[in-house]
């Protein structure tokens, strides 16, 4: 019997590989306003709450997200997910005690994920006794997890199939958007009460991926509207690039802005998204990503040409979809 795991899965941490530690230190601490712990010259962590690690930064050339960690509520569900993955013939590797310590968890398992982003699961986060020292008043985590990840894909149905197989992810809704003449369809998947933990954007009718990085953006949820406004101001004052100005999304109603991280992908700070009621929610399609705002900032014709070049380059590379777990994929409803 395939007992559901939906609702027992929460985005718990993200691992980023970068050589730009000085810039990330300023970005995460002074601009976004998170708590920072410097472990050594090649390791740094950011906290949002009492969990020891929400973002682990390690030295390396990727300038990208290399792993996502998912908090599983209990050992029974953890073992159920492990059994699913093994049943599909996909290798599962136990993390070393040192790796678990760095991530602030007691134990973790890892397995291959879409777009080369390693997926990791754990049950017991380690809580820190050290009080938070950060510019923000707080962030929303808890049952909703710590935010969401957004990726671009040439095989969106496969990725939807993957997260359905592993975590029983449910479709929340779609957005149709046209950016610079390019038509996009964005699919939003949830694994708990958060409107979405995974967003998948694809160019309609063209098998191209215009984004260099594995993730297009990460999202964290600020506790107050004032936290969003103050961090937006700090991003500007410290000279970091802004990708999209403050605006409000059509589907989850979150008010947010998007800054560009030192590694190149975007970082969304949002506030007050809707919480899903499983008894009443029905998927729908929204036209455009924003009710208002979210205006592109500083995008030049050169930036657009770079995106087209990246899209053309993606045609030569087969996107990683982990076929054993994604199967034939789940087509749009």
Give the helix/strand layout.
Blueprint: E1 9-18, H1 21-32, E2 35-40, E3 43-47, E4 55-59, E5 64-72, H2 75-87, E6 93-94, H3 97-103, E7 109-111, E8 118-122, E9 148-152, H4 156-167, E10 170-179, E11 182-190, E12 198-203, E13 217-221, H5 225-237, E14 242-249, E15 255-260, E16 266-271, E17 285-287, E18 290-293, H6 301-314, H7 323-326
Parallel strand pairs: 1-4, 5-8, 9-12, 10-17, 13-16
Antiparallel strand pairs: 1-5, 2-3, 3-4, 6-7, 7-8, 9-13, 10-11, 11-12, 14-15, 14-18, 15-16
Helix pairs in contact: 1-5
Task: Summarize the structure in words.
The chain is an alpha+beta fold. It contains seven helices and 18 strands. Helix 1 (21-32) crosses helix 5. It starts with 8 loop residues before the first strand and ends in a 7-residue tail after the last helix. The mean pLDDT is 93.
């Amino acid at each position: 019997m395939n007992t559901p795991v939906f609702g027992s899965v929460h985005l718990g941490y993200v691992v980023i590989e970068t050589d730009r530690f000085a810039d990330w230190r300023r970005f995460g601490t002074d601009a976004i306003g998170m708590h920072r712990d410097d472990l050594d010259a090649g390791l740094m962590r950011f906290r949002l709450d009492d969990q020891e690690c929400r973002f682990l930064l390690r030295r390396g050339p990727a300038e990208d997200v290399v792993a996502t960690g998912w908090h599983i509520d209990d050992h029974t569900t953890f073992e159920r997910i492990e059994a699913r993955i093994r049943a599909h013939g996909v290798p599962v590797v136990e993390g070393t005690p040192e790796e678990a310590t760095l991530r602030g968890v007691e134990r973790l398992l890892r397995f291959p994920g879409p777009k080369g982003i390693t997926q990791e699961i754990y049950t017991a986060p380690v809580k820190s006794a050290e009080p938070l020292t950060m510019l923000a008043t707080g962030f929303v985590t808890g049952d909703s997890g710590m935010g969401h990840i957004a990726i671009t894909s040439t095989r969106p149905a496969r990725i939807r199939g993957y997260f359905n197989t592993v975590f029983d992810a449910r479709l929340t809704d779609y957005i149709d958007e046209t950016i610079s003449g390019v038509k996009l369809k964005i699919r939003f998947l949830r694994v708990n009460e958060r409107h979405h933990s995974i967003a998948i954007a694809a160019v309609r009718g063209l098998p191209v991926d215009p984004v260099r990085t594995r993730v297009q953006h990460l999202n964290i949820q600020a506790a107050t509207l004032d936290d969003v406004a103050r961090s937006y101001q700090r991003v500007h004052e410290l000279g970091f690039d802004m990708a999209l100005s403050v605006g409000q999304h059509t589907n989850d109603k979150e008010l947010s802005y998007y800054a560009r991280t030192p590694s190149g992908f975007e970082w969304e700070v949002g506030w007050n998204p809707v919480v899903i009621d499983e008894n009443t929610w029905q998927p729908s399609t929204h036209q455009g990503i924003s009710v208002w705002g979210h205006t592109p900032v500083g995008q030049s014709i050169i930036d657009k040409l770079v995106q087209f070049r990246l899209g053309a380059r993606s045609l030569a590379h087969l996107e990683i979809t982990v076929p054993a777990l994604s199967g034939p994929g789940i087509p749009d409803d």
